[in-house]
Structures are given as structure tokens and as C-alpha cells.
Amino acid sequence: MTTTDPWIRRYFPSPDAPVQLVCLPHAGGSASFFRPVAQALSPQVEVLAVQYPGRQDRHREPMIDTIGGLADQVCRAVTGAVDRPYALFGHSMGALLAFEVAVRLEQDGRVAERVFVSGRRAPSCHRDEQVHRRDDAGIVAELRGLSGTDQQVFGDDELMRLVLPAVRNDYRAAETYVCATDHRLRSPVTALSGDDDPKASQEEVRAWSTHTRGAFEMERYPGGHFFLVDHAPDVIRLIRERLTRPAAAPR
């Protein structure tokens, strides 16, 4: 792994790859979630996994509890790291970030080859969720229900004390997010979802189509919120196919 910026992890540097994929983790997640993706896509696609402050090697840094604030910092890091055509992939909270980062980069004249949004309803679809206001037991119940956390973690009190502040922070960011722009991306958008995801109905996922002037497609998989773990080979295959034969973004 190499890194020159605390925000970016290159687990499998691929300097000859024709395209880079910036990956944005879910609430409470970290860059290492995308290490297997980076390995699978290398050397055709170089993955740049984003590491949010307040976790793993950045655990001493203050967290950012708004999507806008995170997007501003991620945009700065991506601008410094991306040196060829690029795409964005975000899961859950990361999908909102992918959208907001794509908006900022487009406004700076840098249009993504494609934006992949996974496990998240469109920015225009608001729900009044208040998980971040629950006590620790309530947040743990939420995580158990989504089945995206190793069950052994719940039995490790010390580890849970380290993890829960980041989870609460990120839920606050996602749950207080309000889409403040009517900007429609020029990039094509691929929306991925699980057919049993309590966080994103089929109609809410399809609403991503209203946020782009480019091509839109929706792919659904069996499973819940973390369908992409169970169907990793299929998801990675789709990413590879779309980025090695990308649809042109409108100019």
C-alpha cells in the first residue's frame, strides 16, 4: 500500500491503469473495506479508497459530522490524487458523498466517467431517521439488523467503544443531510441495491435517475443492505465492465 495523503489509500498501486476508481465507505466504515475490490480490479483499474478521519490509523483526528463538510475535504483529496480518467463508487452514506463529490468536481470541470451509488436512496428522497440519537444499545441493534458487521465485533466491548463514536457520527451526517442542489450530473449513474434493503426501496433507488443528465441504469441483487458483500464477484465484474467500456458522459 502507498499513500501520500491521509485521506487516500492505494492498496494495489496500478500506475498503468487507464482509469481510477475512488471508493467511499459506508457509515462507520473505513478504507480497508475496499481492499478486496482494489485487489480484484488491479491492474485494469486503480482503486483509491477514502479513509475518513476518526477511525483506524486516523482515530485521533476529529470526525466530520456533515456530508457537505466531508465532501469538501474528500474533493480536495481526490483533486490531488486523481491523475487520469476517474469514476466514483460509494456505498450507503458513501453514495451520498459520491454524489456531492461528483457535483463539486464537475463544477471544477472534472467529469467522472461514471458514478456508482450502492445501497442508498436518491438524495431527493428524504426519510426522517434518528438512529444517531439512540443510546449505544440502540445503535448496536441497528447494526445487527443490517448484517454488515462481523458478529464477533459485538462481543468485544473495547472494540465497540472504539467503533461506536464513528458510527454515530456518520449516521448523524447521513440523517441530517438535505440535498441542497438541483445540479444534475453529466456522468452516467449506476445504482446498485439489494431487493430486501430496508434503507432503500426500489422506487427510492430509481429516483437517482433524476440526478443525472447522463445514462442511468439500476441493478438489483438478492439480499439486504450489504448485498455487495454476498455478491462481491458480480458487483466487481459489473464495475470492471462499465469502466473498461465506459459510456460517454454528455459534454
Automatic annotation (TrEMBL):
Q: Which Gene3D superfamilies match?
A: alpha/beta hydrolase (3.40.50.1820)
Q: Pfam family of this protein, just one?
A: Thioesterase
Q: Name one GO molecular function term.
A: hydrolase activity
Keyword set includes Transcription: no
* Biological process annotations from GO: lipid biosynthetic process
Q: Which residues form the Thioesterase TesA-like domain?
A: 22-243
The record, for InterPro entries, names: AB_hydrolase_fold, TEII, TesA-like, Thioesterase
Q: What keywords were assigned to this record?
A: Hydrolase
Q: Which domain of life is it from?
A: Bacteria
Q: Per the similarity annotation, which family is this?
A: Belongs to the thioesterase family.
What is the name listed in the Swiss-Prot or TrEMBL entry for this protein?
A: Thioesterase
